[in-house]
Amino acid sequence: MLREKIIEALQTVKDPEIDSVSIIELGMIEELEIHQDGVLIKLLPTFMGCPALDIIKNNVVKAVSSVDGVDRVDVKFIFHPPWTSDRVTDLGREKLKEFGIAPPPRHIEETGEWQADCPYCGSTYTTMENLFGPTACRSILYCKSCKNPFEAMKPVSTLM
Amino acid sequence: MKYELEDALKNEALRDAAVELLFQLADDDFMIAYRGSEWLGLAPHIEEDVAFSSISQDTMGHAAMFYQLLSDLGAGDPDQLAHARPAAERKNASLLEKVNGPGTYLTEPHYDWAFTIVRNYFYAQAKKVKMESLKNTSYQPLAEAAVKINMELYYHLLHWKTWFSQLVSAGGEARTRMETAMEKVFDDLEGLFSMGSHGDEITKHNLIDSEETLRTKWIQMMSPVFESLELKMPDQFRMKSGNGRNGEHTSDLKAALDTLGEVYNFDPAASW
User: Fold this and answer.
1) In the 8-state DSSP scheme, what is residue B1?
2) At how many degrees (to 10) do helices B140-169 and B172-193 cross?
3) N or C: which end of chain A has fewer CB within 10 A?
4) Contact between B249 and B87 (Cβ < 8 Å)
5) A-chain residues within 8 Å CB-CB of B155?
6) Interatomic CA distance for residues B215 and B221, integer angstroms
7) Contact A136 B158 (CB under 8 A)
8) CA distance linking residue B184 with residue B178, whole number of Å
9) A79 to B55: CB separation less than 8 angstroms, yes or no
10) CB of A82 within 8 A of CB of A158?
11) CB A151 within 8 A of CB A102
12) Are B51 and A136 within 8 A, CB to CB?
């Protein structure tokens, strides 16, 4: 089936900065429309200022164009529904950990505080070093158990 | 009544009002993001350098989103809108174009951190009030953008509020400098809430709450912070440097646009 082949191709498109995680696992794919004259893929951007968006778009076009039976690929970024960190799949969360990034916390206190477990040793004994990290979607934390600095994907929710 | 893009393209009065508002939103974010990016490498410590550049990058992303919405409404190419419009056509509040302090990025940058904190905090709160209002705007594409922007803004506001509270409550020189910075910001804060000479058309089409409602909400959000820090809010905010929504700007804007657009203007047709 064409749809399955396209999804297989999309699975090869990774986050340019976290190359263990695909855009499917990040929950960025909202719609896949197969028309007679081509394929339209609607993606949800994670963070608006993310400089990787253009790279992701080009990589999607490249990957899907190579599928037999696809003539034309269009990629469109849409904002509705908004991407939230709940969209990261369970597999995506595991793969983030493998890369040394704590998956986005599922629970946020009323004060806005949140905690992430260390992706290396699993300890909850961690502290926030900087809410802002090397990319818009990540924060920098420190594990007091295994003494490793690590990053966590920020929680983003429409409830904030 | 909710309008989609097709509705706005058919209804000229609605389209013009939406374009007017979008220019104000886009130019505000564009300018403050630029002023923020000028702090790169100069912020008080490395964590702040990381945080501030991330915030500025996000904010520039929001500006790009607004310029794209403008482009969808037939206002022109987003890059051209961002880089090539002269100062007189800019709709940003004048407060946001002011230099960070004396000197330039490369030569003797004596930038004022207190002014930066106050300006960014007050701006982030005003933007938050606007985004909350825009979630219910009559123009559906803008409502969707507001939901998205609001989630990222949450972190910006938290960041600036933390700096603000800590520096003010530190007392001594920190508090004095923050108070001086606040006077300067209040002198032009009204420009953030103004919608300029086309304000009536913007509110008539239910695109956003009135200036007064936005200002009142801002005061409501800020009052507990001011009270807890024993700070006094002036009875009235002012627009000393002119109303940017009507194209009244300081010479700082022209200088900023010349710097910002230097590469673009060198070869506007270049591909990136």
Assistant:
1) -
2) 160
3) N
4) yes
5) 131-132, 154
6) 10
7) no
8) 10
9) no
10) yes
11) yes
12) no
End-to-end CA distance of chain A: 40
Among the listed residues B34, B39, B32, the one whose alpha carbon sits nearest the alpha carbon of residue B94? B32
Query: Which of A48, A51, A133 lies nearest to residue B62, judging by beta carbons?
Result: A48
- Per the CB < 8 A criterion, the answer to whether A25 and A46 are in contact is no
The residue among A160 and B243 whose pLDDT is bigger is: B243
Instruction: Indicate the angle between helix axes B140-169 and B46-72, nearest 10 degrees.
Output: 160
Torsion, Cα of A118, B166, B222, B94 (10° steps): -100
Q: A160 pLDDT exceeds 90? A: no
Q: Out of B55, B147, B159, name the one closest to residue A82 (CB).
A: B147
Residue A126 bridge partners (DSSP): A143
- 3-state class (DSSP) for residue B174: helix
Decide: A134 and B57 in contact? Cβ < 8 Å: no
pLDDT-based confidence at A21, cuts 50/70/90?
Answer: very high
Instruction: Name the β-bridge partners of A130.
Output: A140
DSSP letter string, A93-147: HHHHHHTTEEPPPS---TTS------TTT--S-EEEEESS-SSTTEEEEEETTT-
- What are the two backbone dihedrals, phi and then psi, of residue B226, each rounded to the nearest 5 degrees? -60, -45
Distance CA B230, CA B165 (A): 11
pLDDT at residue A111 is higher than 80: no
DSSP state of B3: B
Backbone angles phi, psi at A140, to 5 degrees: -110, 125
Quick one: closest CA in B to A134, which residue?
B50
pTM of the full predicted structure? 0.94
Nearest CA to B31 out of B188, B224, B179 is that of: B188
Put simply, the answer to whether A160 touches B150 (Cβ < 8 Å) is yes
Identify from B152, B160, B163, B272 which residue to disrupt to test chain A contact, counting A C-beta atoms within 10 A and taking the largest count. B152
CB B82 within 8 A of CB B76: no
Contact between residue A11 and residue A101 where contact means Cβ atoms under 8 Å apart: no
What ipTM describes this predicted complex? 0.88
Q: Is the pLDDT of residue B272 over 80?
A: no
Tens of pLDDT, residues B195-237: 999 999 999 999 999 999 999 999 999 999 999 999 999 999 9
Measure the CA–CA gap between A64 and A82, rounded to whole angstroms: 24
Averaged pLDDT for residues B99-114: 94
Give the tokens for residue B127.
């933007």
Say if residues A156 and B152 touch (Cβ distance below 8 Å). Answer: yes
Region at B33 (left for phi over 0; alpha for psi -120 to 50; beta for the rest): alpha
Other beta carbons within 10 angstroms of residue B250's beta carbon come to 19
